[in-house]
Amino acid sequence: MDYELGEDFALKLDAVDSLAGFKERFYALPDSIYMDGNSLGLMSVDAERTLLRVMDEWKTLGIKGWGGGKVPWIGYAERLGELQAPLVGVDPEEIVVTGGTTVNLHTLVATFYKREGKRLKILADELNFPSDLYALSAQIRLRGGDPDTDLVLVKSRDGMVIEEDDIIDAMSDEVALALLPSVYYKSGQLLDMERLTREAHKHSIVIGFDCSHSVGVIPHYFSEWGSDFAFWCGNKPLTCLPVALI
Questions:
Q1: 8 Å CB contact between 45 and 25
Q2: Is 121 in the same domain as 150?
Q3: What predicted TM-score, i.e. pTM, was given to this entire model?
Q4: Residue 65 shares a structural domain with residue 170
Q5: Could you tell me which of 36, 100, 151, 216 has the fewest CB atoms within 10 Å of its CB?
Q6: What's the rounded Cα separation, in Å, for the pair 222 and 244?
Q7: Which residues have a Cβ under 8 Å from the Cβ of 105 and sit 6 or more positions away?
Q8: CA-to-CA distance for 63 and 70, rounded, in angstroms?
Q9: What is the reported pLDDT for 35?
């Protein structure tokens, strides 16, 4: 197809787009072009319908809703996990929808960060999302360590991207855990998670990824890659719910 400049051609493409109908499933704000899907997407008709249904179940069933709702409440985390499993290449029992990103990060690091012998350090990088670095520092302090010495931050050569070779070079036998983003929010750089997982395991390092800026945008194959853990949120590409993979 020969592309043309101008609104008329754009509207023509919209008319034949097989995904165009999805727009009707969201509440569009009048007289605006909504571009803030990275922080909070528009409310969907489906989300509203489900929320109202659950509220009615609460009103009519009370505590019985845990087992008697249309979707029993007690299984929501696992059910939502099943729906997201294909997005990240894992089995349904390997994923659960729960909490918020930073809470999930604390939970995961508390589970996987084992200070043993000279393996005391956590490997991250200076371009990582600030709240992730705050959480890593807190987890080190909770175990009696000092973030100034035990949080290893790989430096950026240009302030925008991180060289993967620099990350791998920092994988020493003093590192117990590595936490990296899948995509850097400042530049859009995508890390090779498969390669970094393989290199981390060569050094007996547990490795996890913050995939808040990639799940729902690119394919993920966590089980195939052998990644130890990952977490992401749903208010960006997914416009859904926070998720932790454990």
A1: yes
A2: yes
A3: 0.83
A4: no
A5: 36
A6: 13
A7: 132, 135, 136, 179, 210, 231
A8: 14
A9: 81
If asked whether residues 102 and 138 sit together in one domain, one would say yes
Co-location of 82 and 192 in the same domain: no
Q: Which residues contact 128 (CB under 8 A, 6 or more apart)?
A: 179, 180, 181, 210
Token digits of residue 226? 């052998």
Alpha helix locations (H) across the chain? 7-16, 45-61, 65-68, 76-88, 101-112, 130-142, 147-150, 164-169, 193-202, 222-225
Same domain? 133 vs 233: yes
Residue indicated by tokens 């395991």: 201
Question: pLDDT tens digits for 147-160?
Answer: 999 999 999 999 99
Domain of residue 233 covers 93-245
Burial class (CB in 10 A: 0-12, 13-18, 19+), 127: buried
Q: What is the CATH number of the domain that holds 230?
A: 3.40.640.10
Quote the number of domains for the chain.
Answer: 2
